[in-house]
Specification:
Helices cover 60% and strands 0% of the residues. Helix 2 runs parallel beside helix 4, helix 3 runs antiparallel to helix 4 and helix 4 runs antiparallel to helix 5.
Amino acid sequence: MLYDIGASEAAVNELRIVSEQDPTDPRPHRMLGLIYKDMESFEQASVEYEKRCGATRYAAAEDVLLELATCLLKTLRFDELDEVVAESPRSATSWRYWPRPD
């Protein structure tokens, strides 16, 4: 709710507290990833998404992998992007064929 009203810094602080209280819950990291991605802080977003990726039973795992792939693409981390796309479900298969700048 804090993020929705534009209080990004307060939302980040609250999400950090929540993630410390239950380190096994991937949801705070996904929300942190979304916040940082929206702020175009793609490196920090990637860190949060990667923390979340360990939770394979998370309902939104496919979405998170695609969000992480977007951040890796924006930060030109192509080797890591290839790995994420390779482990992504069928909806990400089209990402494998994007043209790479040489």
